């Protein structure tokens, strides 16, 4: 009997769905191999009273999965790309990304609060940009998976919150009783670098086996966005948005506001020179 290749994943419904999507891709590209989940709980999952902002945010959802790779308990790990540090730990690499989903943030508000006064989010990026649209709003936080947060909004813990459209789509959630969903356009709320991309991580020694199995276009865009974030020395707890698609790079930074750059990326070799030019123009 063949021993399956283990894939490290968190246990949330969204994480398991994303891992299922990766396994479907691997079944197409490596049909001779069997894969199984290694479901892990992270410290963030256990400590719902933690403030993600105060604890730095970036890497909090990935460490236990990366440890499983380094300890050889798993061969692959699945992450939401926006949660990942800009550089992988020594000995690990990004094998690739699935094709990117809808990148927008979605404002979910109670039906009786069309102009919410209390908005819950732990993301400085979302708070900074949505604060332009709702300048009188007060800010709070709610924790939990997608379903839990929707329930907390409906039960009145806050009047509104923000969720990633990609997560809602993957969980096939189009509505929730007592709530209204509003997709926010990317020119108003620029997504986080890597938002809506599913990252597949492996050990560096195994990179050659997996690196050509996934979406090159998504890898180019996410690498560019993460490169911009790295230039700023910032993690996901700094209010920075960065999104590249089809020749247009959108940026949000509190010092320069919303900016757009026309860039045609065709290869990885272009990334560093283009980032040099952008940083020079932004003077950040």
UniProtKB/TrEMBL annotation:
GO terms for molecular function: hydroxymethylbilane synthase activity. It catalyses: 4 porphobilinogen + H2O = hydroxymethylbilane + 4 NH4(+). SUPFAM superfamilies: Periplasmic binding protein-like II, Porphobilinogen deaminase (hydroxymethylbilane synthase), C-terminal domain. The keyword Transferase applies. Keywords: Porphyrin biosynthesis, Transferase. Residues 7-207 form the Porphobilinogen deaminase N-terminal domain. This is Hydroxymethylbilane synthase. It comes from Thalassobacterium sedimentorum.
């Amino acid at each position: 009997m063949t021993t399956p290749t283990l894939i490290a994943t968190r246990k949330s419904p969204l994480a398991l769905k994303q891992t299922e999507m990766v396994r479907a891709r691997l079944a197409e590209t490596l049909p001779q191999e069997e894969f199984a989940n290694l479901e892990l709980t992270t410290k963030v999952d256990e400590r719902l009273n933690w403030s993600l902002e105060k604890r730095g945010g970036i890497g909090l959802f990935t460490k236990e999965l990366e440890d499983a790779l380094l300890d050889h308990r798993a061969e692959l790990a699945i992450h939401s790309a926006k949660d990942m540090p800009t550089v992988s730990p020594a000995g690990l690499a990004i094998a690739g990304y699935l094709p990117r989903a809808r990148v927008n943030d979605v404002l979910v508000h109670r039906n009786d609060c069309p102009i919410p006064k209390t908005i819950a989010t732990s993301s400085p990026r979302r708070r900074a940009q949505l604060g332009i649209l709702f300048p009188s709003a007060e800010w709070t936080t709610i924790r939990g998976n997608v379903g839990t947060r929707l329930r907390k909004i409906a039960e009145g813990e806050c009047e509104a919150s923000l969720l990633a459209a990609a997560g809602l789509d993957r969980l096939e959630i189009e509505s929730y009783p007592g709530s209204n969903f509003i997709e926010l356009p990317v020119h108003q709320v620029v997504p986080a670098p890597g938002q809506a991309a599913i990252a597949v991580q492996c050990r560096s020694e195994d990179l050659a086996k997996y690196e050509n199995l996934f979406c090159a276009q998504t890898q180019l865009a996410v690498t560019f966005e993460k490169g911009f974030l790295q230039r700023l020395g910032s993690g996901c707890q700094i209010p920075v948005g960065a999104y590249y698609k089809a020749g247009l790079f959108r940026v949000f930074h509190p010092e320069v506001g919303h900016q757009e750059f026309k860039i045609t990326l065709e290869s990885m070799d272009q990334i560093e020179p283009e980032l040099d030019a952008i940083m020079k123009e932004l003077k950040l």
